[in-house]
Amino acid sequence: MRSELNEFLRYLQVEKGFSQGTIEAYRLDVERGLIPFLHQRDKFEVGEITKADIRAYLDYLATDRGNCSATRAQKLAAIKSFFNYLVESDGLEVNPAASIRGPRIPEKEPEYLTEEECIRLLETIARKGRPRVRERDMAIAILFLHTGLRVSELTNLKLANVDLERSQIKITRKGNKEQYLHLNGETAGALAGYLANHPQAQNGRFFVGTNGGNLDRGYVYGIVRRYLRLAGIDKGKRGPHILRHTFCTRLHQKGVGPFTIKDLAGHKSLNTTMRYITIENKEQAEALDRLEFGVSFQGGGAKLP
User: Fold this and answer.
1) Taking Cα atoms as reference points, which of 106, 107, 82, 108 lies closest to residue 96?
2) What share of the chain is helix, strand, coil (3-state, %, to 5)?
3) Lower CB density within 10 Å: C or N end of the chain?
4) Least confident of 80-84, 96-100, 266-270
């Protein structure tokens, strides 16, 4: 089964052009999740796998692993893609997962930081950041807040693709699509401050560790979570994505239209962008509701408090 998985991963890279991060996520979902579970059920060949096996795996994820519906849906999507590839490449007659419906994912409004919380976060980095990494951590936070980068886009940012003279960076979006982003004055200043003192990168990456090595996804999550905790900001899952949510929401608050937000954030669908506008509209409605005087209208007349 592992040989089929390796062929599938090569297909994702060569023919589909998926990013390395997406390919790695697919690999982990199948290699470290599904395959060990199937081995426990004495299923070692792809032709032996049935719909019942896939259903049992999803049940295991929910009951034994405690995976939420969104995580289970993501893993099921990876499994379906894997078996679809095997069917299309004549390695399998039928996709055993094809007719399995994914769990319903409850709609969650993305959380974001208020203006005051953003300032508090940056002040915390300035006051409590370790001297060796303070400029780097400040640059990371400001870049997230002012450009809305995904973690993979930040960790893969190349030194050669940061042009402070032109105030722009070139990033690689999902699907290996390249995009130039403008840097405002605060962001350019933060990057310049970091660049003046950062260790020489061994592989051309812009952000590096204290030893010059890569910053991986987990390391960046740890940086953001630490400062959010030190700043006393507790909103759901602390991590870089809340800073991306903040970027999109603040753009809307500043009067930027949804199509521009979509382009700046690199959203594939406008529906994703509209989630942030719905949040803001709800807040506007709540603000107007607070203006009420307490007047009631019953029986055709007004009753004052």
Assistant:
1) 82
2) 60, 5, 35
3) C
4) 266-270
Three-class SS state of 180: strand
Spacing of C-alpha 299 from chain mean position: 53
Instruction: Report phi then psi at 220, rounded to 5.
Output: -65, -40
C-alpha span between 66 and 141 (Å, rounded)? 31
Answer yes or no: are the C-beta atoms of 180 and 132 closer than 8 Å: no
pLDDT in tens, 34-62: 999 999 999 888 889 999 999 999 999 99
In the block, which residue shows the tokens 């390391």?
219
- Could you say which of 1.10.443.10, 3.30.420.40, 3.40.50.1910, 3.40.140.10 is the CATH number of the domain covering 115-288? 1.10.443.10
Considering the chain, tell me which residue range(s) the CATH 1.10.443.10 domain(s) occupy: 115-288
Tell me the β-bridge partners of 296.
303
Residue 278: per-residue pLDDT: 67
| Structure-token pair, residue 148 | 């809305």
Structure tokens at 90: 């004549």
